[in-house]
């Protein structure tokens, strides 16, 4: 018995010794990889514009992005440290090119799952199809109206969406989990995920009916005691809101925008923030905390290195590097290539159909007044589609800048395919023609600005319509009434004019609430169909002059 007891004690001692050896004696190194605003760009987009290393006064465009290259980049970066996690800050889907949108963004969910994404904040575009469709993306199943269209059964995301600030008003619960906890060498770390409070203003109202979106900082701060009660001190925030820096992709000079105020309001327990939404790249120190963002469309993977103290269980250091996913550097991942090829085969007949021809590229770069060639082309197309007496009788067409998702880049042949057109307008909204008085149109133009910042949600206007705006004037008085003209004549405040917009802003989306006051609304063709029709009937299109909107001061 004594011999047996001795052996038992020896075994127990060895076990305890082994446990002690497994416990970290120094800081635990953790690698966090992050992306944001992927928007279904399975194939490389137009790349990323950065300062020219040879001449910082100039910029160059670097070919980057695409799921095949992102998968390789993330795999290589994660191999550096076994303690790792791959996260995202929203808008992974929505506003997607045809290859993903044609299949309700199922290809993108499958692609990101395949490359090992673990958690993601919901973005505003995750609500484009409504909460039921978002939950289908999470849990799987065929589309309720159109069934299964992909090459395989859609099983839903292998990663977890997080929605700490989005509440179902009927159940009183968040629509998805608020946070995710992961342990690194026994040290727990929480990842809170949420979208911007203003989501209802920038999505179709019907898509968020019955939902409540709480204040970002207040939501996070309320969760801190709950996490600390579980022994968690290391806290990261994944938030679909961002800022506007003035520097290059790996800098942070002069950052402004909502993320700055949000971070300053956060409980000091929050150690780092991964942001998005503004489609900008930066890595900053705001209020003593690391704040990052990785551009858009998979052009950047943000590599974040943390040190966790096993005693305090808190983050003791954090640094970041925005890694450009250069297509020439990162080879195509075979599994991603296979996935994409399967969907391309199904989409090919529609995607490659030629719909028109252009003589020069049509840019989506905005002028100082907020006008862009691609936006004006869309407005002209929508006016042409609805100007007939039986089609709405429109005399003005307006397009929200946020809905212009891509340029038309001239190919060697000049041909424009349906896939090209769809990349420009991927939301597939109906056109709506309504009657607005001159006074209502004036109010509508004033709603392009929501703050004193001169960066507005600019409307793109059709030919024949023009106005000026004064950057030095206060809100609600930036557009002189006498400058608002149709075919050279100042609009009469009392006269009704037939105006065409898409169904998204017609329902008050992007904050254009005046449009909900429109009378005698007539629903017309889909926006991309109007663009296709215009491209097919206007040979060798060139960019229009940006003289319809004038900026004063």
Structural class computed from helices and strand pairing: alpha/beta
Order of strands across the main sheet? 6-5-4-1-16-17
Ends apart, CA distance between termini: 95 Å
- How confident is the prediction overall: mean pLDDT? 93
**Unreliable residue stretches:** 1-21
* Number of H- or I-type helical stretches: 14
For the secondary structure, the number of strands is: 28
CATH homologous superfamily identity of the largest domain:
Metallo-dependent phosphatases
Radius of gyration: 26 Å
Task: Tell me what the structure shows.
The structure is a single chain. With 553 residues, the chain is an alpha/beta fold. The protein folds into two domains: 24-334, Metallo-dependent phosphatases (Purple Acid Phosphatase, chain A, domain 2, 4-Layer Sandwich), CATH 3.60.21; 353-552, 5'-nucleotidase,  domain 2 (Alpha-Beta Complex), CATH 3.90.780.10. It is built from 14 helices and 28 strands. The chain has a six-stranded mixed sheet with strand order 6-5-4-1-16-17, with helices on one face. It is globular.
Keywords:
single chain, 553 residues, alpha/beta, Purple Acid Phosphatase, chain A, domain 2, 5'-nucleotidase,  domain 2, 2 domains, six-stranded mixed β-sheet, 28 strands, 26% helix
List the helices and strands and how they pair.
Layout: H1 2-22, E1 28-35, E2 48-52, E3 55-62, H2 67-78, E4 84-88, H3 98-101, H4 106-114, E5 119-121, H5 131-139, E6 160-162, E7 166-168, E8 173-174, E9 179-184, E10 187-195, H6 199-202, E11 211-213, H7 216-228, E12 234-240, H8 258-265, E13 270-274, E14 281-286, E15 289-294, E16 300-308, E17 315-324, H9 334-351, E18 354-357, H10 373-386, E19 396-400, E20 415-417, H11 418-424, E21 430-437, H12 438-446, E22 459-461, E23 465-470, E24 485-486, E25 489-490, E26 496-502, H13 503-506, E27 519-526, H14 527-537, E28 549-552
Parallel strand pairs: 1-4, 4-5, 5-6, 10-12, 12-13, 13-15, 19-26, 23-28
Antiparallel strand pairs: 1-16, 2-3, 7-8, 7-11, 9-10, 14-15, 16-17, 18-20, 19-22, 21-26, 21-27, 23-24, 24-25
Helix pairs in contact: 4-9, 10-14
């Amino acid at each position: 018995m004594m011999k047996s007891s001795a052996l038992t004690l020896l075994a127990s001692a060895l076990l305890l010794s082994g446990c002690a050896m497994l416990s970290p004696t120094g800081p635990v190194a953790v690698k966090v990889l992050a992306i944001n605003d992927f928007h279904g760009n399975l194939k490389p987009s137009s790349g990323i514009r950065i300062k020219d290393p040879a001449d910082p006064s100039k910029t160059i465009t670097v070919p980057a992005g695409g799921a095949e290259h992102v998968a390789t980049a993330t795999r290589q970066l994660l191999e550096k440290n076994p303690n790792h996690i791959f996260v995202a800050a929203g808008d992974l889907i929505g506003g997607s090119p045809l290859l993903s949108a044609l299949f309700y963004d199922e290809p993108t969910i499958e692609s990101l799952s395949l490359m090992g994404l673990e958690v993601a904040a919901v973005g505003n575009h995750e609500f484009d199809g409504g909460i039921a469709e978002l939950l289908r993306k999470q849990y799987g199943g065929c589309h309720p109206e159109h069934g299964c269209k992909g090459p395989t059964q859609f099983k839903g995301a292998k990663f977890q969406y997080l929605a700490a600030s989005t509440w179902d008003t009927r159940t009183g619960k968040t629509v998805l989990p608020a946070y995710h906890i992961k342990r690194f060498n026994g040290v727990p770390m929480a990842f809170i995920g949420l979208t911007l409070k203003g989501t209802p203003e920038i999505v179709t109202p019907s898509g968020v009916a019955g939902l409540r979106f709480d204040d970002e900082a207040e939501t996070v701060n309320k969760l801190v005691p709950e996490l600390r009660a579980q022994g968690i001190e290391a806290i990261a925030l994944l938030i679909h809101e961002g800022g506007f820096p003035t520097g290059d992709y790996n800098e942070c000079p002069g950052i402004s925008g909502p993320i700055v105020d949000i971070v300053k309001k956060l409980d000091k327990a929050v150690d780092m923030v991964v942001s998005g939404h503004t489609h900008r790249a930066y890595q900053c120190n705001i209020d003593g905390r690391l704040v990052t963002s990785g551009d858009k469309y998979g052009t950047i993977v943000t590599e974040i290195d943390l040190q966790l103290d096993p005693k305090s269980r808190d983050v003791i250091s954090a640094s970041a590097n925005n890694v450009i996913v250069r297509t020439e550097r990162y080879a195509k991942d075979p599994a991603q290539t296979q996935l994409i090829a399967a969907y391309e085969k199904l989409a090919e007949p529609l995607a490659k159909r030629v719909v028109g021809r252009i003589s020069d590229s049509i840019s989506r770069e905005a002028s100082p007044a907020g006008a862009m060639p691609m936006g004006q082309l869309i407005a002209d197309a929508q006016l042409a589609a609805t100007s007939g007496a039986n089609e709405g009788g429109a005399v003005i067409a307006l397009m929200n800048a946020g809905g212009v998702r891509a340029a038309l880049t001239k190919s060697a042949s000049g041909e424009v395919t349906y896939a090209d057109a769809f990349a420009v307008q991927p939301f597939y909204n109906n056109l709506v023609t309504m009657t607005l008085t001159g006074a209502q149109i004036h109010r509508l133009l004033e709603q392009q600005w929501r703050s004193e910042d001169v960066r507005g949600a600019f409307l793109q206007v059709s030919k024949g319509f023009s106005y000026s705006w004064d950057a030095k004037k206060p809100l609600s008085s930036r557009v002189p009434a006498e400058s608002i003209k149709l075919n050279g004549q100042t609009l009469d405040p009392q006269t009704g004019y037939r105006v065409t917009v898409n169904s998204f802003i017609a329902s008050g989306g992007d904050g254009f609430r005046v449009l909900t006051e429109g009378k005698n609304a007539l629903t017309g063709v889909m926006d991309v169909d109007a663009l296709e029709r215009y491209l097919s009937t206007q040979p060798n299109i060139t960019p229009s002059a940006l003289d319809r909107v004038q900026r004063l001061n």
